[in-house]
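Exercise 3.2. Students should predict the tertiary structure of the chain below and write it as structure tokens, then compare their answer with the key that follows.

Predict this chain's 3D structure.
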Amino acid sequence: MDRLWTNARIATLTGDGLGLVEHGAIGVADGRIAWVGDAADAPVATDTIDCEGRLITPGLIDCHTHLVHGGSRANEWAMRLEGATYEEIARAGGGIVSTMRATREMDEAGLVATALPRLDALIAEGVTTIEIKSGYGLTLDDEIKMLRAARALGQARRVRVVATLLAAHAVPPEYWDDADAYVDLVCDRIIPAAAGLADAVDGFCEGIGFTPGQIARVFDAAKAAGLPVKLHAEQLSHLAGASLAASYHALSADHLEHINDADVAAMAEAGTVAVLLPGAFYFMRETHKPPVAALREAGVSMALATDCNPGTSPTTSLLLMLNMGATLFGLSVTECLRAVTVNAARALGLHGDVGTLEVGKAADLAIWNSTEPAELVYRIGFNPLCTRIKDGTCI
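Answer key:
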């Protein structure tokens, strides 16, 4: 065994709770977890590290971000403070379209350079896996450019990057008179071209986005390309997008402020993860909360993510999302921690490799300057991370 972290309180996140091991140890070999259990029974390792009683969790997973983009929308935020709605700004050429223009103007290297500080902020809080969406290019070349930038970020830093094609994010101005023609472009050209770069396909099912029928076409094209799907659904209104996503066995449906009982039942049956995004809920000053109690009762797995994006959730703190998940949405400490580990892994289709501390999984760990799991959810604007470990290597 290469290395052993011992004298730790370990939250394995196995089972239905935190899976706590008191006075535990974790052994690693070749970048994988080789042993987990009571420190008194731990095998001999080449290198042993005394954690001095600290808490160890799986490395955190941010399963919904728009990390790669050009420009800023601070001025639009100021407009919203003065009373303009998200829909009004979008229809006036702002919103996603303004970021589209800035992103189209940047080359791949520029997108990587501007995204790195955002990525570094998340890494500094113990994130070892991150999903990064395209969706601000809205042409074949620009969507591919964004996916390549996402991949480049995974090479620039020791972090697992999941790249998601979100070409069905908004209708670009050149197609405003014929949105179906843009959907044709997404289905016939962009998805096939992205199949070697993207891990999944996403869409925005909303009045200012795409109709359920258009999203179904996108999902059919994704299925033909062998890519799993996920969906931005029921953020601003109810179009039954979550039920549509579940009918395609989507990995996740995200936002979900306006889902109903039928959507919840469909997601439960399909095993589709509910990704809750309290940062956007907070930033947009929404009042209609996702039905957490109904999701909980139905047994739908719930994840939390930053939704890091320039327009509606400009945050790079997954720890803050833990606190918001508890204070705004009523999640428990256990639910919050599962939401950024095991359930976030499920939302990315990676639960066989990350999200829990079990033998055979990737040795992605976060060691905290605390013994209490609640400390990670309780504090605001405070980072208790001691050490981040990716594939068995301290970073």
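Discussion points: The longest strand covers residues 20-29. The CA atoms of residues 342 and 355 lie 4 Å apart.
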